[in-house]
Structures are given as structure tokens and as C-alpha cells.
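B., you asked whether I could sanity-check this one before it goes into the benchmark set. Here's the sequence:
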Amino acid sequence: MQEKKPRRGIQSVEVAFRILNALQKSQQAMALKDIAPLAELTTSAANNYLVSLVRIGLAAADEKPGFYRLGPAALSLGVSAIQQIDGFEVVRREVTILRDTTRRSAAVTTWTDDGPISLFKQDGDQRGAFEFRTGLIPMLTTAAGKIYAARMPSNLTTPLIEQQWDAAFGGKPDACKFREDASRELKRKGFTAIVRSDLAGYVSLAAPVLDWNGDLRFTLSLAGTRASMQTEPTSAQVKSLLASASRATRALGGKAENGD
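And here's what the prediction gave me:
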């Protein structure tokens, strides 16, 4: 069978993208001398490309001479790309990847007026009590619920936490402490975990998926048993979860808060 030859492209377009990619990684205007090495160009070559990019609006010259930033046309392209994103399709694919990679049950949830809801799930090799369910999920006894407690406004989460407290823990509700503990865990590890100490030994892990505003859009979750799920940050299952959440976040235009 004859191998397909790589399709020919326009090299200058790819070079120009390297310049734009360098600009988008900086939160402020960049000096020409700093742009050139990032784009693997000489200073004079980078300057020639920037002249054209400024002319068409993809780059803009800063008030400070010799400094450049992304232009209005780049912003328009970014907004259009965001509007074309099917966020659910992005995370749905990641759920399938997670299940296939870890062989554990995987699911995606989002926030609604009634609380977190599981939208889509794929069953792992272990069936029964360790499967996810679609529909509304608890705030207090799921890893995904802890992420919403950590990231969503307290006026939205406190009523649900207090409502579910007695069934989950008993005693007087302490929504503030629950939110603070969940927030510290998420900031420290980049994910949350629930490990039950009963005979069932249920374990769930969850990681956030953020949009271009840095807002929580979805959570991705894994579930299994204490014997089959490792919760250490260095475990293969946690790494797969964080990688999926990072890919989905970037696909939604966000900046991943955890590693790949």
C-alpha cells in the first residue's frame, strides 16, 4: 500500500502562527527581541511578519516602541471560535477517553438551579454499586459535589449543603467549613476525592473543567473501589483524570489549573 504523502501547506502561515502563539501566551505587550526567539526567527524576520500581522489586525503595535500584542482581529477570531464550541461534546469525548484509559466508571456533571447533575456516564469494568447514575447527584458524598462546593457561590451551595447534611453526616450543618475544606483540597491537589470507609469501599475522584472566563463549566469524575482506585496525585488514574480535565478546559478556551 502506498503511503500518503503529507499535504503541502504554506510555510509562511505556520511561521506567522508561531508569532501569534508567542503573543497569546503573554498577558502584556512583548518586545520584538523577545518574540523572535519564541517564534524561532531572527529579529529582522520577525519584524517583517509583524508588519503584515499588524496590517491585517491580527497583531497591534503597542504605545511603547518595539512592543506588540494581539490585535482586534485576533480577538474576533477567538470570540467566534468560542461561540462555535460544543462544550458538552468536548467533555463527552473525554468521559469515553477516561473510561477506556482507566477501565473505571467515568462521568461528566454540570451545575443547575437544583444542584449538580450528571449528564453522561460510561460504565467501567466493575459494575453494580460503583457505577455512576445520570441525574441529580449529592453535594456532600460525591467528589464532583465537593468541587461545586469549592467553586460555586456560597448563596447557591449553602442551601443544598444544609438540606443534605443530616442524611450524610448527622448533627448541626456546617456549610462554611465544608466549603472551605473542599476549596483547600482542590487548590492543593487540583482534584477532589471521596473515600468511604464502609464495607463497600466506594471511591470517587473529580476534577474541574473551566471555560474562557475561568468559571467552572463541568466536572469530570472517576469511580471505583478502594482496591481498584488510587487517590495519590502520582497515580495513573489521577494523572488520566487531570489530563482529561486539562484538555477539556483548553478546548473551552480556558487555562488549565493542573498539569497534563
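One thing to flag: The mean pLDDT is 88. Otherwise nothing jumped out at me.
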